[in-house]
Amino acid sequence: MDNFSTRNFSNYGKVLSPHVILIRPERRQYLTSNSLLFLGDQTYLLDSGYQYQGDQLKKIRDAIDIDGILFSHYHIDHVFGCHILPESKKMIHEEEVDALRSFDNFIQFCFKDQTISSQQWNIWKLRFKNLLKREGINDWSDLRLDNVITFGSNENIDLGATQLQILHLPGHSPGHCGVYETENQILFIGDIDLSGKFGPWYGWWNSELDTFKKSVEYVIDFVSRNEISRIVSSHTHDVSKEEGMHLLNNFLHPFDEREQQIKTYITQKRTGVTLKQITDQSIIYQGKQSDPPYVREYFEFVHVKKHIEALMKKNEVISEGDKIFST
């Protein structure tokens, strides 16, 4: 393992330390994410991605046995590529293990506690099936997630040459986690996205706006209190501690900015506005479209509704029938 860990990994990814390799998608696009490879007495991969656009994992699989995969959370751009490593042990936070048990479980987890029409249900099921097919997967069982096991919120994973400290960072999803590699002080923060292109994202019904904000604040505090050599998020390059602190603080701003924009719009409409009217303003997505369009429309709606609920909790808006008014 020591010989392998000091090889030139230029064909696989960026060497962050002799035991940590950053694997970035060959082409950055929607539904791609970074992975980290940890080399020790055991070799673990953090997030298997949704890798239809490249073959980095296949190259690594052919070069070394990967003992386990840690999923930062259950979203498809972090999980679906695991079929490339069928024999590897799979692990996820205990809050999200049920999401990976079956295809129906996965769909229900996304829409948990939210009633949607049978038509919408079928549309989303078809979308996810098509995304699986793009990865070359015809059936959920091909992901080999039937024996996925769990880790806890503050668990430490011993890989021999290095130690991994799990950081539970919920909000983006219930079991969303970061990982701190203690030997070389490398911090992975998942979908606390430092790319600056879009975020924060809390578009599924089990996302929690306030919890997400608290997790970001926790990460800022963690970075300020600890030695950090590099910070890695799921959708951009690695950054230094100083740059990371700047980007993390920037990441916090949209929580309040979006809420203020929504409140201002409601205040301007003295006769009240519907949730759909607010959604149509595209305050979250800023006019950006998706293909198919219903994806952006649905996520815009969910984001807006979460902000309305937060404003109602603070008694800054009220609802009467299907309309929302400023107090």
Structure, briefly:
The protein is of the alpha/beta class and 327 residues long. It has helices spanning 2-5, 56-63, 76-79, 103-110, 118-134, 209-225, 241-268, 275-279, 293-313, and strands at 14-17, 20-23, 35-39, 43-46, 68-70, 89-93, 149-151, 156-158, 163-168, 177-181, 186-188, 230-232, 273-274, 317-320, 323-326. It has nine helices and 15 strands.
Total domain units: 2
Strand content: 15-25%
Q: Percent of residues in helical segments?
A: 25-40%
- Structural class, please? alpha/beta
Residue-averaged pLDDT, rounded?
90
CATH hierarchy, class of the largest domain = Alpha Beta
Q: How widely separated are the two ends?
A: 64 Å
Rg (CA only): 20 Å
What's the arrangement of strands in the largest beta sheet? Answer: 1-2-3-4-5-6-7
Q: Could you say which overall geometry the principal axes of the C-alpha atoms support?
A: globular
What is the assigned CATH homologous superfamily of the largest domain? Ribonuclease Z/Hydroxyacylglutathione hydrolase-like
How many DSSP H or I helices?
A: 9
Largest sheet: 7 strands, mixed
- Kindly identify the CATH topology of the largest domain: Metallo-beta-lactamase, Chain A
- Total number of beta strands: 15
Helix and strand pattern: HEEEEHEHEHHEEEEEHEHEHHEE
Low-confidence stretches: none
CATH architecture of the largest domain: 4-Layer Sandwich
